[in-house]
Amino acid sequence: MKLGFVSAILPDLELDQVLAFSREAGFDVVELMCWPIGKADRRYAGVTHVDVGDFKPRKLTAQVSALGYYPNPLCADEEEAEVCINHLKGVISAAPQLGLNIVNTFVGRDHTRSVNDNWALFQERWPGIVKHAEASGVRLAIENCPMLFTNDEWPGGKNLAVSPKVWREMFERIPSRNFGLNYDPSHLVWQFMDPVKPIREFADRIFHVHAKDARISRQRLDEVGILATPLDYHEPKLPGLGEVKWQDFFAALAAVGYKGAVCIEVEDRAFEATLDDRKRALMQSKRFLEQFI
Fold first, then answer.
1. pTM for the complete prediction?
2. Are 98 and 62 in contact (CB under 8 A)?
3. Do the beta carbons of residue 125 and residue 85 sit within 8 Å?
4. What's the CA gap between 258 and 198, in Å, rounded?
């Protein structure tokens, strides 16, 4: 396995500075963010370390695990969805020109509809994206974050691919071997699911891994219940500061022969005040995770 980080936490650095930090800090890889240039509509979005809208092929000076772009291709607004899909296809096209073959993203979801009612949109929009990835020699790794954090995303969240049941149907509908998962255990933890158990079943679909932890406050949960927006009862944490059983998690990955990237994703507000704090968060997480890799 290769230990790295997600570049979204370093928005104030240019690409070459991110790559230099990755090398100097001893990381094996880095996942580079590829949002369109412009204002972000949520935290950790809008970071652009590779601008595929003004793209020039280049040789990277550090190892990169994947390009990352996490929009909502299944949103109800068709014009917005078209913009997302076109940019995602641009990210897919850029990857091989950088010597890469993985793009991390979301499936998306119309959050006002049920899971079942979203499948028609999925069938309409995703086969073409996957065919473009196949033609480009790129594997698409879908992150399992429900994107359900605020009232704007209530009640369904803005990403369909949140559970093993959904993943099975997703892969039955699009069985392409270029279509898989960017597996993040923290999102299963706060949904009260086992983050280790699915690894064996979906071993051949895990293309990339995010390392983030989650802490659930039982006190707040007793106050608001599980029907509250999730940030009312849990918070993202650095690896080792939450409830993921990392020894079991890495043992399961090793058992199924996973040899890909494990990229630290910092979304812990306690470690975000300054650039130095965020760099220290990455180094602290690296020290913790190195005992398992």
1. 0.96
2. no
3. yes
4. 13
List domains and CATH numbers for the chain: 2-289 (3.20.20.150)
Amino acid in the structure at residue 245: K
Contact 266, 278 (CB under 8 A): yes
Tokens of residue 32, six digits: 């580079």
Contact 282, 272 (CB under 8 A): no
Written as tens digits, the pLDDT of the chain (293 aa) is 999 999 999 999 999 999 999 999 999 999 999 999 987 777 788 999 999 988 888 888 889 999 999 999 999 999 999 999 999 999 999 999 999 999 999 999 999 999 999 999 999 999 999 999 999 999 999 999 999 988 889 899 999 999 999 999 999 999 999 999 999 999 999 999 999 999 999 999 999 999 999 999 999 999 999 999 999 999 999 999 999 999 999 999 999 999 999 999 999 999 999 999 999 999 999 999 999 99
List, in order, residues 6 or more apart from 131 with CB less than 8 Å away. none
Q: Please, what's the largest Cα pairwise distance for the chain?
A: 53
- Interatomic CA distance for residues 201 and 183, integer angstroms: 13
Please give the single-letter amino acid code of residue 178: N
Asked whether the beta carbons of 242 and 213 are under 8 A apart, the reply is yes
Q: Is 247 in a helix, a strand, or coil?
A: helix
Structure tokens at 190: 């706060």
Taking the C-alpha atoms of residue 24 and residue 21, their distance in angstroms, rounded to an integer, is 5
